[in-house]
Amino acid sequence: MKPTLVILAAGMGSRYGGLKQLDALGPGGETIMDYSVFDSIRAGFGKVVFIIRKDFEDDFRCQVLKKYEGHIPTEVVFQSINDLPEGFKCPEERIKPWGTNHAVLMAKEVINEPFCVINADDFYGRDCFAVMGSFLSSLPEGSKNLYSMVGFRVANTLSENGKVSRGVCEVNDRRELTTVVERTEIIRRENGICYKDGDKWVVIDDNTPVSMNVWGFTPDYMNYSEDFFKKWLKTNIDTPKSEFFIPLMVNELINNNIATVKVLDTTSKWFGVTYAEDRQGVVQKIAELVKDNVYPSKLFA
User: Fold this and answer.
1) Nearest alpha carbon to residue 117 among 150, 164, 139
2) Statement: the pTM of the whole predicted model exceeds 0.85
3) Within the chain, how many helices (H) and strands (E) appear?
4) Residues lower than pLDDT 50 in the chain
5) Could you tell me the domains of the chain?
């Protein structure tokens, strides 16, 4: 069974100043999502599920989904802060979405196969999808509790504009994830790549794996998430900025010895649009990849 790609595209885009998921950055008017879909097709994925907000459904269907007709089947599901388990009601003061793992749960009814979850506004590169697609496609039918993530080499994720925040991964000798620690200040200094820990700078190897939110799961992950979300809500529902993140769920399963997460290496170089000032650099990087024949000048002709 071919794996499914799940794209988290419900973000507000507040720091960027607009719906960056729909921003044309490629030479043929492509969005970053278009390149992810194109790479997933090359990697053997069989379907794409988009998780969006209902309020921009019409624009999304018109500007995005029409491109993929005849290339790969697609589905759209919606994330809303009011989508809560029975017995829970969203507080009136709640504005912020419930987080990335809540978004994943919105796709439960349309996924029956191994699936990969990514962000809509990150450019992950061809090799990233190739290694994840290979892992998911090779899982025996009915596999459970054996998950994966793509661990980008930290040197391939740095910004030219200053410090970045990354989930630095620790792995065991089987290259299984043991923990992800969010480091909010990572930068290349004169003595190498470093992260700030209190008042000290800690040097890490260029090849240290970091999480860029590329996860591989099997459908059983949804049941675990549903159960844990209820427990999480009992403690966090009245905290306006609390979020049910994917790493939170993953750590819960690892710490309780329920699941293992294989950390997959990739040679891909990540880049993305976080602030409006990042846009031109992304346009230039994509143009270079097209020039080098990594991508055609128009993806879905």
Assistant:
1) 150
2) yes
3) 7, 13
4) 12-17
5) 4-143+211-257+267-291 (3.90.550.10)
